[in-house]
Every structure is written in C-alpha cells, then in structure tokens.
Amino acid sequence: MHVAGGRTHIVGRLQNYVALTKPRIIELLLITTVPAMFVAGRHVPSVRLMVMTVAGGALAAGGANAMNMVYDRDIDALMERTKNRPLVTGAVTVRAATVFAVTLEVAAFALLWSTVNLLSAVLAASATAFYLGIYTMWLKRSSPQNIVIGGAAGAVPVLIGWSAVTGHLGLAPFVMFGIIFLWTPPHFWALAVRYRDDYANARVPMLPSIAGLRTVTRRIMAYVVALCASSLLLAPVAHLNIGYVAAALVLDGIFVAYAWALRRDPSPHRAMKLFGYSITYLTALFIAMGVDAVVRVH
Predict the structure, then answer these.
(1) Hey, what long-range contacts does 109-115 have (CB within 8 A, 24 or more apart)?
(2) Model pTM?
(3) Domain 11-294 carries which CATH code?
(4) What is the pLDDT of residues 43-77, one digit of tens each?
(5) Residue ranges of the domains in the chain?
C-alpha cells in the first residue's frame, strides 16, 4: 500500500509540473513548426531534425509558460478558469517552478544549438524573452493590445522550423509568421468573451472585458479578413499550388462565417464556437501547406 501511495504521489507531482508547461498551448504551437519545415525544404526533413526541432521548441515553450504561471499566480488566483493551477493551489512552490522553468529554457537552447543550429536556438530564446518581458510583465496588465502584440511570441515557431531546415530566414516564413500573428487575436478574444468577467475581476484589460461586444466582434471580423488575405498571399510567396489555395479558400470561408455569426449574435456560445473552429483552422491550414509543399502533381 505504501509503494502504491508513493507512486500516486510521484505521478501527481509529475502531472503538476506538466501542467505548468501548458501542454495544450505547446501542441498548438508545434502544429505549425513541422509544416513550416516541409515548406522550407520542399521535402520531408529527416526524422532526427524534426524530432530535435520539435523537442527544443517544446522545451522552450514549456519553460516560458511555467515562468508565466510564476509571474501571474496572483491574477490566476482571482480567475475561475485558472484558480486550480499548481502555483495557486500550492501544489508546486514558486522556487521549484522557477528552477523548473529556467532548466527547461537552458535545455532548449542547448538542444537546439547542438542538434539544429544557432539561429533556431536564438529564435526560441527570443520568443521566450518577448513572451515574458513584453507580454506577461508589461502588456497583459496594462493594455488591451496585450494579446495583439504579445501574440507575436506564438508565431515564432514557424521561424524556428524554417531556419532549422535552411539555416536562414526569408519572406515566406515571415508571411507564415503573419498568419499566426493575425490568427491570435480572434482566437484569444473569442475565449475572452466567454471569460470576460474573469478578466474584469482580475483587472486584466483583455479587450472583451473593457469594450462592448460590438466593438470586440467588429475587430475580430477585421482580423479574420486580414488573416484570410495573408493565407492566400502565402501561395505565391512560398510557391504553393492549387491544392493549398483550394484548402485555404474553404477554411477561410468557414472562418468568416463563424466570425459573422458572432458579429450578429455576440454570445459566449457563439464565441466558443469560433474559438473551437480557430484551432481546427490553424491545424488544417498548416497541414494543407505542408502536404502541398511535398506532394507534387505532374
């Protein structure tokens, strides 16, 4: 019984540390990395390169997310959505979480530098610094533009994926960067509509908690339209074919429909429908560009 109890305790501690990394967010970031590698090389990269790039990116993102939880533990305690996070409940101490986060960042840089290249390692470290310094410590608590500007950190994985294959950057990866940058506000604002009271209680100036829903839905629509334009711009810039263009047009049309439905009925239910689709959209769009880049129809 004692051994079983010890195993349960160990599993519980591991789960708490995994929770610090926000694994669902990491999954979303890495969904964009591998297709970017496909487009960069016009072929399927080596398994080793993909594994090392994804592992390094996951470690860097996990460390950034853990440090974000350390810094935001005061407001997390005030929000229904985040009140059960490990640092709020005391399941993990601030010191332990900080050491864990720094360890992940050091490991990420070392892994990427030694197995991929220095540019990819520097990009990953820069994304972490931007996410913590610009978004977490400054904009999140001071400006409704927090997620707009801060969202740039979440777009860096495509640059890491591209540089992992080519060793340099160019116009195409920055268009991909722009796609994720423009995708982030409608994705996150839709979720914030559902939790607008949470953000208001914590005094976090997320746009839906400080502006009327008509203003929020108008801005969501504007970003979705700009996103659709950038998704189509990628085709000529990255030399993608009709298969990607067709997929992008369908996915874009559905996204606009969801945004329009939210504009007409700015309810939490509609907002969560758009939030859910936004994840499907990003996943499917990047899969489409990855497949198009490596499958040649003669």
Answers:
(1) 109/60, 111/52, 111/55, 111/56, 111/59, 112/52, 112/53, 112/56, 112/57, 112/60, 112/160, 115/48, 115/52, 115/56
(2) 0.92
(3) 1.10.357.140
(4) 889 999 999 999 999 999 999 999 999 999 999 99
(5) 11-294
